[in-house]
Structures are given as C-alpha cells and as structure tokens.
Amino acid sequence: MPLARLDTGMREPGGPGQKGGLKMLSQAAPTLGDGERKPNEVIKFLDVYERSYCRTIETLVDIFQEYPDEVEYIFKPSCVPLMRCAGCCGDEGLECVPGEVHNVTMEIMRIKPHQSQHIAYMSFLQHSKCECRPKKDVKAKQEKKSKRGKGKGQKRKRKKGRYKPHSFHCEPCSERRKHLFVQDPQTCKCSCKNTDSRCKSRQLELNERTCRCDKPRR
C-alpha cells in the first residue's frame, strides 16, 4: 500500500540523510463528489449503492480514542488516517465488521506541556478486509427463539437445527485494557498493540503480559 510523508514542521531524528520519516496512508476511498459532477446533478442509484456498501475506507481517527491512557500528552497531529470498515449491508440483520486486520506504525509528535516533545512510533489498528455478519442482538434473538422451540416436535427441532451462524464474535482480550491489544477476528488470538521498538524509543521495555511499556528492571 503506497504511503506518503507528512510534514511535521520539525527536523527528523538522524539528520537529512535518514530515510523514512512520518508515513501515512494516501489511498482514500473516492467520495460521491469526485469527478466532473455538475451542481444539482442526481446521483444514480447503482453509484450510490456501490459506494455505500460495506468496505474499507480511509477514516480520521482521534489518537486519544486509541490511546485513552495517555492523557498527559498532546499529539500532533491529533488524529490519524486509518483504513476502517464502514458502510451498509444488504440485510438489516447484518453489520459491517472487519474480517482481517493488521497494525501500522506511524511517527507522531508527542508533547508533554512545559517539559518535552519528541517524535514517537505509535501503532494503530487497520482493517484489511470487511465482511457482513449477523448483528449481536439479532443473533441473540435467534438463539433465544431456537431454545423456545425445543420439545415442540422432532421435525421442528430438525428444521431449526439447520440454522448455523456464518461467524461468531470473539471475546475481548481484556475488559480493562482492551485498547492495548490487537485481536485477530478469525482466530481470536490477542497480541500487543505496543511494539518493542516503540517502547525502546521511550527508554522503556515491552511487558508482553500486560502489553504496556514498563521501566526496565535493574
């Protein structure tokens, strides 16, 4: 996926010879206003339908939404462009959810008022693929209705037994610290959102059990 450099207005660490720098996504989904549209032009149904269907689209996400514990810092920029699932599904009982996810690392200016400021590596969750899956409340109602039907005849029981949900929702990695984890929606496996390199950039080390950046042990 092509990336573009964001100008922070400050010199990058390592001098002018250093390659890399702040990289951010430049592939944004087109909007209905793109192209040579005339004022008051009616947008065709198929165009509206295709562009509103469940898919990944570049979304500006507030950094504090992803890192609510780091309230002592001011971030520049305060939000980042991430590919996230959004849109409608063909059935009211379905919702647009991520089918595949991955991490992306960005350079963000972290400012501690009246103390210090520095460029830090920060990891964010991106959606690679989107799917339409049964909504949680709809799935719960279907399961409840299925239980009520038990004992009302073997034929009806067999008929209800044919329904199999297409997918399931994973239990959260941690209720208290779920923002520190990344979860694979296919395997439900949890991994740390923080990376070892990000912790080291703050003179800390990654605690793989809590997924926090802790002070090095002496």
What does this structure look like?
This protein has 218 residues and is of the alpha+beta class. The protein has a domain at 1-134: Cystine Knot Cytokines, subunit B (Ribbon). The chain is built from five helices and eleven strands. It has helices at 45-52, 63-66, 136-148, 154-161, 196-200; strands at residues 3-5, 23-25, 55-62, 74-76, 79-86, 94-112, 116-134, 181-183, 190-192, 205-207, 212-214. The strands form five sheets. A three-stranded antiparallel beta sheet has the order 4-6-7, with helices on one face. The protein has a two-stranded antiparallel ribbon with strand order 1-2. It has a two-stranded antiparallel sheet with strand order 3-5. Strand 10 and strand 11 (212-214) form a beta hairpin. It is flat and about 60 Å long. The two termini are 41 Å apart. The relative contact order is 0.12. Mean pLDDT is 76; it is low at 1-29 and 163-167.
